[in-house]
Amino acid sequence: MTKYLQKCKNCNRYGLQNQESKCRYCGDKLVNPRPPKYSPIDKYGKYRLQYFKEEFEKKFKES
Questions:
Q1: Which ranges constitute the DSSP H helices of 1-63?
Q2: Which of 1, 8, 25, 57 is the most exposed place for a label (fewest CB within 10 A)?
Q3: How many angstroms from the chain centroid is the CA of residue 9?
Q4: pLDDT tens string 36-63
């Protein structure tokens, strides 16, 4: 049994997660409405920054 509510992506209603992880009203997928925990020590920050720099260069070098 889960202890957190899940939110439907389609109808924005809340419900408890079931085995199929589907909304009982519309049948769409249930997702966790909580944001991830914030940590000032970001383990993957350097990889994310490197990715965004590469994408930025690709986007604006073509223009």
A1: 45-62
A2: 1
A3: 11
A4: 777 788 888 889 889 999 999 988 886 5
CA distances from 40 to 20, 34, 51, 57 (A): 35, 18, 19, 27
Alpha-carbon torsion 21, 27, 29, 34, what sign? negative
Average pLDDT of the residues in 5-28: 90
Q: Which domain holds residue 12?
A: 1-32
- Are residues 13 and 31 in contact, defined by beta-carbon separation less than 8 angstroms? no
Residue 4 in any domain: the answer is: yes
pLDDT of 62 = 64
**Total of domains in the chain:** 1
Instruction: Tell how far CA 17 is from the center of its chain.
Output: 16
User: Which pLDDT score is estimated for 1?
Assistant: 45
